[in-house]
Write a structure and sequence with these properties.
Chain lengths: 117, 110
């Protein structure tokens, strides 16, 4: 079965960096585009970024453009999110999600990122 | 990249039907058939309920249905059950090749 497991969350000071990982299993990873979606405490879903199946194309939400970088290593079946210049408003649970039929058909359990001094 | 507009809350009694609207623009909801809906129970990851406006993934009850007219998409849940109580989010592909979510709707089963 499809499994997505995020890791790398934690508490970080404003202005610092953090890298999230999402380990994928149960499907052919390099056949699918992948997304990061976040959810601030008590708030709604907020789309962050997408990367194509081969890593050649990426798109970002305006709120993270220039600070976050989505990447993938298809040899390791792993998706990444490099987050730089973190702000308090980046505090959220970060989910990775697989794209199928232009929807997010499978989600991980999420990893919490807290940006605080 | 403004969020799609959903009602903050809706409610219904068991057995009734409810509809949740999702309003965007011609650059997202109105321009593409790529509207999806997600159910999220408290403390859980979202679950895909509808894709491409009106299609149900395998395993999703046929009590859930989707539609679209112009810039507004809708999710209808018929025969409400207690287990349907959750937050619901719409999402759309956009003309910038990004995605956008709605603000979410809290469904209460009375």
């Amino acid at each position: 079965q499809v499994q997505l497991v995020e890791s790398g969350g934690g508490v970080v000071q404003p202005g610092r960096s953090l890298r999230l990982s999402c380990a994928a299993s149960g499907f052919t990873f390099n056949n699918y585009a992948m997304h990061w979606v976040r959810q601030a405490p008590g708030k709604g879903l907020d789309w962050v970024a997408v990367i194509s199946f081969d890593g050649g194309t990426q798109y970002y939400a305006d709120s993270v453009k220039g600070r976050f970088t989505i990447s993938r290593d298809n040899s390791k079946n792993t998706l990444y999110l490099q987050m730089n210049s973190l702000r308090a408003e980046d505090t959220a649970v970060y989910y990775c999600a697989r794209e199928a039929r232009s929807a997010h058909d499978n989600w991980g359990q999420g990893t919490l990122v807290t940006v605080s001094s | 990249q403004s969020a799609l507009t959903q009602p903050a809350s809706v409610s219904g009694s068991p057995g009734q039907s409810i509809t949740i609207s999702c309003t965007g623009t011609s650059s997202d909801v109105g321009g593409y058939k790529y509207v999806s809906w997600y159910q999220q129970h408290l403390g859980k990851a979202p679950k895909l309920m509808i894709y491409e406006v009106s299609n149900r993934p395998s395993g999703v009850s046929n009590r859930f249905s989707g539609s679209k007219s112009g810039n507004t998409a809708s999710l209808t849940i018929s025969g409400l059950q207690a287990e349907d109580e959750a937050d619901y989010y719409c999402s759309s592909y956009t003309s910038s090749s990004t995605r956008v979510f709605g603000g979410g709707t809290k469904l209460t089963v009375l």
